[in-house]
Amino acid sequence: MRTDILHCEADIVVVGGGLVGLTAALALASGAAGAPFRVVVVDAFDPRAAVNAAYDGRNSSIAYASWRLFEALGVADRLRGREQPINDILVTDGKVREGASPMFLHFAAAEIADETGDAPLGHFVENRHLREALLDAVGDCDGIELIAPASVADVVYAPGYADVHLDDGRVVRGALCIAADGRGSPVREKAGIKTIGWSYDQAGIVTTMVHDKPHEGVAQEYFLPGGPFAVLPMTGNRSSLVWTETQSVAADLMALDDEAFASEAQDRFGTYLGACRPDGPRWSYPLSLQLARDYVKPRLALVGDAAHGIHPLAGQGYNLGVRDVAALVDVLVEARKVGLDIGALTVLDRYQRWRRFDSTALAVMTDGLNRLFSNDIGPLRVLRDLGLGLVNQVGPARRLFMRQAAGAVGELPTLMRG
Fold this sequence. Notes:
The protein is globular, with a radius of gyration of 22 Å. The chain has helices spanning 19-30, 64-73, 75-78, 113-116, 127-139, 186-190, 247-254, 258-269, 317-337, 345-373, 378-393, 395-405; strands spanning 5-15, 39-42, 59-63, 83-86, 88-95, 99-108, 122-126, 144-147, 152-158, 161-166, 170-179, 195-211, 218-224, 227-234, 238-246, 276-278, 283-292, 296-297, 300-302, 308-309. It has a domain at 5-59 and 126-197 and 289-398: FAD/NAD(P)-binding domain, CATH 3.50.50.60. A hairpin with a 3-residue loop joins strand 5 and strand 6. By secondary structure, it is of the alpha+beta class. Strands 5, 6, 12, 13, 14, 15, 16, 17 and 20 form a nine-stranded mixed sheet that branches.
């Protein structure tokens, strides 16, 4: 018979030690935005196993504003030499083996250098390197205790505290529980928070490609009838391929040997990077859109994929989670300064109002772009090509989209202001 015992008490318990959960813990405990909180992170996985290359082949695009948060937390220094600056973004439309449309949209970091201090539009980092940097920073922070691997059996909310019950009988108590446990968030489900959304008949294939020619820090988003085909620059002569196809086609592509897969990829890459070939394993993920109906309840706040999951075509999923974290930190620091209860719904509701519009707007935008471009309907093709060309020619509109891609629009939280 299990006997629950109070293992420890903290200000905040973060459930989920992935990229967003670790970022949240570090931002809260470091004191970079104000007085530090005592934080406990509970994660079901062995943290060091998650930095293995075979665990996750994905990469994260870290927008300019998110990178400023990394600089404030000391994470950017830990990633030096392992991150690839994104200097340009090129968006095109086309067909397989027919090449790209002559209409395109080009973002150049130099064009908004007066606002960004000549910084790149963002940085591209392998998830395993990002996890390692975050784990090292968490390990060096005295205000964080990481409990992993450990599974959460239940969360009990009471006046003044939330008790996180672990499978082994331990209890971790905090004034606030933060759910950073992904799209299928058990904490969200146990709290009775419903979601809305839908699945796409698409899967994302992710792998690393090596190529003969340098990419010069250019990220390419090539819209094809089956979905976006993104070529994203990594360190060296390597690029991350994020290839969206219908689920049936994706399954066929995953079944190909490396030589046949490389041939199919080359048909879409074209020749601008020279000969291309896979470097390492491939992963495939079903794609969907999901939004939580509520981001908060008394003593509970959702961040990252627990709150919202969007189509990856804009590469903004992790950046949305970083903005959640930075906004929540501002709300909690301000509440603490004036003596308010950080777990009270009246405090947390400000976080929800701040973040819900931004994440919903981006979810709608990415859903709309995917539907507009992931087809081969003639009139729509003409319309979207004209749209790309028009935005590219109108400087103010182009720069607005660039600032959006850099995460430098709207009300920025303290840690993202530089």
